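QUALITY CONTROL LOG
STEP: pairwise intake check
CHECKER ROLE: data steward
CRITERIA: each record must contain a sequence immediately followed by its structure tokens, with no blank fields

ENTRY 1 OF 2
RESULT FIELD BELOW
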Amino acid sequence: MKGLGELERTVMEVLWAREDAGGQAATARDVSRALANDRDLAHTTVMTVLDRLAKKGFLARERDGRAWRYRPVASREGYVTELMLGALNETGDRDAALAHFVRSVSEDEIGVIRETLAGLMSKEPPA
């Protein structure tokens, strides 16, 4: 999965936050309003970014009258996971990169990793 540019990421953050809050798909006007306090963007710029994100496969869109409604195809966590996996694929030694990563996380994060691994291990079928 390709990375996002700064403006694309800002727009995706609006849509992810809206989804996290249980909101429906957003129009370009919804996104423009959400960004109004932080960024001075022309409405046409927001429309262009949304269209580009849809063409890249980050957003699904549906017609709502004359407007389009956009929603993220994947969660924020799913996107970050894809970035991390892509970075691992770029290394010559995935094992070394994973080991280095694990050594760099906090104790709390190690706890999350342990819990996740324990859950995965308990779901494995007997050998």
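ENTRY 2 OF 2
RESULT FIELD BELOW
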Amino acid sequence: MARGRLLRRVTEDEFDALYATAFPRLVGQLTALTGDHGEAQDVVQEAFVRAWCRRASVLADRAPEAWVRTVAVRLAVSRWRRARRWRELVCGHGAAERVLEPGLEHLVIVQALRQLPEAQRRAVVLHHLCDLTVEQVAQETGSPTGTVKARLSRGRAALAKLLTPGGTVSVG
């Protein structure tokens, strides 16, 4: 019997009745939760869109308004999390680090990298500074994996010579 209720065709009038009675109440509840009337309207509206897609099962549920409220609350929480994460990315400590002037060590490493052949420099930067795997570097550069490994090996050896005391580039 329950299966038959899930499969029955729900009319637009039945769904409209749920919407008309529940929407204002849910917006009020979500406004209290979010503190923002416009945000509450958005998440409740999105929850009703999702309910429309599942209207037969939602209306067959004993508490369709509770289903819509649960979806709206989850949407609001997801938006909070995204907003908080965005704020952390934009206002977090990472942004301040990017605007600091480079230290002497950074300048020396950049100068040493400039002395490497372009293919070695690119492989070293992609692998060690961008944290790409050898396979990802190969894909990015369009080179075979073995070639990338050789470029990394040669590039590291050249950098070691350049950055050691007596090399062309040194700290100090």
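INTAKE CHECK: passed for both entries
DESCRIPTIVE NOTE, ENTRY 2: Confidence is low (pLDDT under 50) at residues 1-7.
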